[in-house]
Design goal:
The radius of gyration is 17 Å and the shape is globular. The protein has one domain. Strand 1 and strand 2 form a beta hairpin. 21% of the residues lie in helices and 39% in strands. It contains 1 helix and 6 strands, in the order H-E-E-E-E-E-E. The relative contact order is 0.20. By secondary structure, the chain is of the alpha+beta class.
Length: 104
């Protein structure tokens, strides 16, 4: 497989992933971003924890999530638990963010 073939394959995989994301976005109420992944979910719990030396970390749990990862054969995940010292971003999606405009 040439470098060009590999690049074409990865480009096609990213396009398929974007199309799937667009199709499932309306099913979810939250976007969760960590340093390694991007999730869509309807149930998210973010807990700030600290260790004895004073460092802070985040524990994020989600149920019935969709994960942006083009190398996963199945992107729907029943339960997710992320523990990280890095930033975590949780945004609630407004239904108007992804509704199609009505034809008038």
């Amino acid at each position: 497989m040439s470098a060009e073939d590999l690049e074409k394959y990865e480009t096609e995989m990213e396009l398929q992933l974007y199309r799937e994301y667009r199709d499932v976005l309306g099913l979810f109420g939250y976007v969760v971003e960590t340093e390694r992944r991007f999730y869509l979910t309807n149930s998210v719990d973010l807990q700030v924890r600290s260790v004895e030396n004073g460092e802070v970390y985040f524990e994020v749990t989600m149920q019935d999530a969709w994960v942006w990862d083009m190398y996963r054969p199945a992107r729907f995940v029943k339960n997710v638990r992320v523990v990280t010292f890095k930033d975590v971003n949780v945004e609630e999606l407004a239904k108007s963010d992804f509704e199609l405009p009505s034809d008038q």
